[in-house]
Design goal:
The complex is a heterodimer.
Chain A: H1 2-20, H2 23-55, H3 69-96, H4 99-131, H5 139-160, H6 164-178, H7 181-191, H8 211-243, H9 248-256
Helix pairs in contact in A: 2-8, 3-4, 3-6, 3-8, 4-5, 4-8, 5-6, 5-7
Chain B: H1 3-8, H2 13-55
Chain lengths: 258, 56
């Protein structure tokens, strides 16, 4: 029964992927979703910035400098989440030859690299007043820098191979191997002595920060997450048009919008 | 709290506003660049289609 249930689940999943994994269908779906996602993103940013910069009181130790957390932590989270998403799409494209998954992986890379860069820069701007240094070669900071190079390497590899299918295959291997860096980033603050503080927020225990800091942090995290979804959809729509330009439906679409 | 106090960020103005400014800049680039790219794709596809129709 269990096995049968699992099998039915997998075949349902494959049916679902085939239904919405068709680039033509996804192009339309994404087009309808973009305005809604963009609206939610804008709203979350307005509320999050108000709460983070004005509503939340200063920290008793760090004063107002801790407010950097509201951009630093969401970007650091998204840098890792985007990588896992990118590697999952890349693996899906590699194993099952789902073209849309290849495109979604490719469209995620520049966004993930941006989150990583922002996490590094804002972290540096937070480190200077709190630790007295812009940068240290400790485990957390170094592994996050490696994440940035993984994104850049992935994009460089994509750009260096003209054939989209071969580019997707080669870069998928890089993306999948690079996943090993994600738990290293996460656990680096526990495994090694580091200046970086451990997580303030985990799924399994009470938050270590006040509710007045927690609320803006959560709102800003959702803001950056929705920003990612919005721009992923915009990017993947362009990618679909380029990759499918010889198909009838793209020709008809372009012809109808002359 | 006055507006100038708000801007001063308890003496951390440079660090706080640089961090928010950088994040805003990256968000802006990531919003504008894909839109420009999408327009470029449409222009190229339209041109290619026109050429194909002329040849026919």
């Amino acid at each position: 029964m269990g096995e049968f249930g699992g099998f039915a689940g997998v075949s349902r999943l494959i049916k679902f992927i085939h239904k919405y994994g068709a680039p033509k269908r996804f192009y339309r779906l994404a087009g309808r979703l973009v305005p809604w996602f963009a609206g939610v993103t804008a709203l979350l940013f307005v509320v999050g910035l108000y709460l983070g910069l004005y509503w939340a009181p200063p920290d008793y130790q760090q004063g107002d400098a801790y407010r950097i957390m509201f951009v630093h932590v969401p970007n650091a989270w998204m840098s890792m989440m985007a990588y896992v998403i990118m590697a999952s799409f890349a693996a899906t494209g590699y194993i099952w030859n789902v073209r849309l998954a290849d495109m979604l992986a490719k469209a995620t890379a520049p966004l993930g690299a941006s989150f990583t860069l922002t996490a590094l820069v804002t972290g540096s701007l937070w480190g200077k007043p709190m630790w007295g240094t812009w940068w240290v070669w400790d485990a957390r900071l170094t592994s996050e820098l490696i994440l940035f190079f993984l994104y850049v390497g992935y994009m460089a590899l994509q750009a260096s191979i003209d054939d989209p299918r071969r580019a997707a295959h080669a870069s998928a291997i890089l993306a999948i191997v690079g996943v090993v860096n994600i738990p290293i980033i996460h656990y680096s603050v526990y495994w090694w002595h580091t200046l970086h503080q451990p997580a303030s927020l985990t799924l399994t225990s009470q938050p270590k920060i006040y509710i007045t800091m927690l609320i803006p942090l959560i709102v800003m995290s959702f803001a950056f997450m929705f920003f990612y979804f919005t721009m992923l959809l915009v990017r993947v729509r362009s990618e679909i048009l380029v990759r499918e330009q010889r198909t009838d439906w793209v020709r008809k679409l372009v012809g109808s919008k002359q | 709290m006055t507006f100038s106090q708000f801007l001063a960020m308890g003496g951390f103005a440079f660090y706080v506003w640089s961090a928010y400014g950088f994040a805003a800049f990256v968000v802006l680039v990531n919003t504008v660049q894909p839109i420009i790219h999408s327009r470029k794709v449409w222009r190229t596809l339209r041109r290619d289609l026109d050429r194909a129709e002329e040849e026919e």
